[in-house]
Amino acid sequence: MNNELITKLLELAKIAATRNEVPVSAMIISPETGEIIAENHNRCEELKDITAHAEMIVIKEAMQKLGVKRLDGYDLYVSLEPCTMCAGAISLSKIKNLYFFSEDKKGGGVINGVKFFEQNTCHHRVNVYPALKDEFSQILKDFFKNKRNVK
Amino acid sequence: MNNELITKLLELAKIAATRNEVPVSAMIISPETGEIIAENHNRCEELKDITAHAEMIVIKEAMQKLGVKRLDGYDLYVSLEPCTMCAGAISLSKIKNLYFFSEDKKGGGVINGVKFFEQNTCHHRVNVYPALKDEFSQILKDFFKNKRNVK
To answer: Is the CB of residue A76 less than 8 Å from the CB of residue A27?
Structure first.
């Protein structure tokens, strides 16, 4: 794990919040060079697409950029534990290592919920590194608290 | 369920096979009018994107066409039981009824595997109507048999 990337990931999630998007961010990283292949945040509001989660966007962007159908060997950094849909996509795309920095007890699909990478219907098991950090859960708490206050 | 739509769905899956795509097709239907809002097949090869499953494509297309972020009340017809990723997307998009016509014991996430719609981390439970028909499983068997013979 690279601390500079983690700081950048947090900044990206904060940008999402300013755009009224749920503040979740993701990056695809080359583990050899440390290069960021793709970085983005949730864009469900902007794209009017409830499936436009940060992970889905960066997986697609990285595949397009690299001209490949899968991301074998690449790392994925996500600010929040991926949901079931994204866990499925991460496995399909054959990402090697998944790092995430806050937990989603209600909607997560990696260390919570369906724990997809532990199931028999998961045909590529991603290495999972949860590295929970208060600042990542705090931006989500702040975002939803603000939303409730506005209503 | 509408037999004309089922026939059309099967034809669409067959078209996929001729394009070297895994023959899986999907349609979003308005239950009131019977109108097909979106129809497509797997396009993983064409788009070089392993997440370009038929369900993901039609969900996105239907949201774009209708200008909405979710598909509350709509029906989804799929030739094959959706995988875990697609089950997650189907729930997020709030589709009302899911009809599918072949089972995926190895990779399904609806009546097999994680059975996502039965889990606590699934916040919109879709009505599930499996209506298994031999011709739908047969096109998949034929496709993979041909693939093996070509190798």
So the answer is: yes
